[in-house]
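Repro case for the chain-ordering regression, as requested:
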Amino acid sequence: MGALVQDTLEPDAFRKLYPDQYYARFVAEGLRPDGRPLLQARPTTIALGAVSAADSSALVKIGNTTVMAGIKLEVMVPVDERPQEGQVAVSVELTALCSPDARPGRFSEAAHCLNEQVSTALRSGGVVNLQNLLIAHGRAAWVAYLDLYVLDADGGLYDAALLAALAALAALRLPHVDVDDEGKVVPAGASDAAMVLEDADGQRLSAAGPAGPQPIAHLRVGSLPTALTCALYNGQLIVDPDRDEEARAHALVAVTVDDRGRLLGVEKQGGRAAADAAALQSCIAAARVRHREVASLLRQALHAATVPGYSGADS
Amino acid sequence: MSCTELAGPGPGSGKELLRANGRSAHQLRSMQCERGPLQRADGSARWCQGGSVVLAAVHGPRGTASRKEDPERAVVEIVFRPRSGLAGPAERLAEATVRRTVEGVLIAALHPRTAVTVVLQVLSEDGGLLACALCAASAALVDAAVPLARTFVAATLAKTSEGVLLVDPDAAEEEAADAVATLAFAARGEAPGDVAPTLADGVLACRSAGPLSDGDFLAAVDLGRAAARCVAVFARASLEKSLSALV
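-- result from build under test --
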């Protein structure tokens, strides 16, 4: 049917009337409607410090997909089971303007899924050593509220959200704080309390506790996990699909790898097509290639923001 | 059921290792499947995998809110309820995984503008919950006689810090493990006279979390297929038993 109409229809009409045939013809030629080869990801940018009010922030764009990450630090009392650890609390919001399906109000399924995926990747990659967030043993620790806002949803949300979260965490500076005689957490060298915490039972927070306050300028991330979503379509592998391609794909496979070569996650949420071992292997290989691109971009951005430990050179 | 111990594990499998719960590394927990425990649902099943129990109810295909319906196919709605409390991000991700898995096997074009709703209620939780929920959903869909291209089964694997792959871990083993992977496979369409079900080559759904090497992951996929085959044999036997009770 497609062959009959394609000679007589304008390309734009063909795209609207026969979207599947339109797309299939592109893929058969090894190209995509936006001009990319099948294995090429969209141009990616990382802008650190996009929000001045946040303790750390990053704006990541992958093609049109835009995700903003912001971190706000607060002081908490460590939970009894983990007296030496702070917390990272992730929350994700798909803003009402990001796509036609998004609605304001309650968290959508997509937002919850993204939250779980990003939290899992950060946890299983050991990105944040929670003990680095400790201020005083059992008394005070940082909790980093990591908020992710999807501003424009054009496919590959998980890839962009994880990258934004990672960039914001890697650029996070922990303020130097002291625990004063009153038992309050105060900025180092300041007598008036900008950030105050009193112990629950009114006890003083002791600066000479087992760990003591150890000033850490930057939160050092333990690894750099990045993700790549691949679409399976007619037996072909398509890297970094946009929103239309995701809807047309027979199955999606998201692979998370880190800079130590570890495979942190492989996620395939069902779909019409099954992925055999060869398809999974090519997804993993594509994710490793993409990791080198993205990690180098991230290192350059962190170097430009003078975060210590990043030379700006590739790995 | 007899087939809970995998035959012919790969090299260096540590099959002889005995776990804290007395199983060998490649031994599944005993399974139970009760078909049709609920009277009001169109189909239902209770799937027990050791200490993990999930009750699944299927409603539909039936009409749905016009905002959700698709003019060309049936849509799938999944409700995943934890044992207690409200559904959080983990449950919503499980819902999405089960939904896309069901969408992969449902012959959706037969019932346009309807919805198939699968409600999954966790009754008891002891590891491998996603796989248990997938198996329960599959059994309940069969019980509801919703047209499916294939049925599916799932299995869970855990990689211990010593690098051993454990089949069907319980909650303690999952907690201690470096990485946990859940794999779902579609049963291959079979001829009426087939003795044992076979599984399709490709992975229908997969969710792994935790650091793995490529080799470990591919080994986990192979082992997951072998374990899922055991589950499929059991599911088939349980279905035959429930059907023969009807005659």
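Ordering looks correct now. The longest helix of chain A spans residues 277-304.
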